[in-house]
Amino acid sequence: MTEEAPRAAAVAADAIALAETVADATAPADATAPADGAAPSDRAAADVTIPADPDPDPDPDPDPDPDPDPAPDPAADVATPADPAAAERSKEAVSRFVERFASQLVEAGMPRMPSRIFAALLSSDSGVMGSAELADQLRISPAAVSGGVRYLAQVDMVIREREPGSRRDRYRLHSNQWYEALANRDQLMRRWEDTLREGVASLGGASPAGRRMSETLAFFEFLEKELQGMLERWRHYRGERFGD
Asked: How many angstroms separate the CA atoms of 113 and 93, rounded?
């Protein structure tokens, strides 16, 4: 039993040496080697590699988008003014309407220049224009404007008024220009009726010309009576639909 103890101690020493050899062989190349004579526990601690901190100063609230899109600007939703090309197209469209409507008024019997001036006033937002504005838009002379407006004023389709603080005239549409025009036709038809009665009396109602004259008189008398009722109905209809 005395001989076996040294032998066991030698085997244990050989096992420890073998284990240290294997540990040295498998340790990472950049591991820090312990100093000679260090205790086995110190050697084992030295063989442990502490991983480096990937982010030594982490951001507690990292921003996944360092450059985010700015918040929408409410002003961006505001419609921008139309470009000059769109404004020019609109001007051309108004000009086409003026000329087309004026041509139709001419076909109905109105002189050409008053027709163009009336259509220009009708297509303006305010319904009021000065002589220079009309001359520039319609490309006519101030004298032509004056003559056309004179006709429109005579048939109660426009009003001539003085610009505030100026000696220049401006021209305004009647707020109910068609009513005014027809209402004044009523007075005109009465004068026609008086003249036609004189014609019937002069020609004789039994003659062919007298009968034709009588039928014309009867037509205007009928139209006058119907026109009065129609204008009254229009006043009620206009008030219900447009509130004035």
From this structure: 20
Average per-residue pLDDT for the chain: 75
Helix (H) or strand (E) holding 50: none
User: 142, 135 in Cβ contact below 8 A?
Assistant: yes
Three-state helix/strand/coil letters over 71-82: CCCHHHHCCCCC
Q: Which residues, in sequence order, are CB contacts of 75 under 8 Å at separation 6+?
A: none
SS3 140: coil
Cα dihedral 20, 21, 22, 27 sign: positive
Cα–Cα distance measured from residue 35 to residue 107, given in angstroms and rounded to the nearest whole number: 120
Q: Which amino acid is at 2?
A: T
Q: Which 3 state secondary structure label does DSSP give 130?
A: strand
Cα first-last separation, the chain: 134
Measured CA to CA, the distance from residue 165 to residue 73 in angstroms comes to 44
Q: How far apart are CA 20 and CA 43, in angstroms?
A: 10
99 pLDDT exceeds 90?
A: yes
Task: Count the helices and strands in the chain (H runs, E runs).
Answer: 8, 3
Cβ–Cβ under 8 Å, residues 156 and 180: yes
Q: Which helix (H) or strand (E) is 159 found in, with range?
A: strand 158-162
Phi, psi of 171 (to 5 degrees): -125, 130
Tell if the pTM clears 0.90, that is, is over it: no
Whether residue 103 is predicted with pLDDT greater than 90 in this model: the reply is: yes
Of the ranges 78-87, 110-119, 232-241, which one carries the lowest mean pLDDT score?
Answer: 78-87
Query: Nearest-CA neighbor of 170 among 128, 121, 137, 135?
Result: 128
Per residue in 174-202, pLDDT (tens digit) is 877 788 777 777 778 889 999 999 999 99
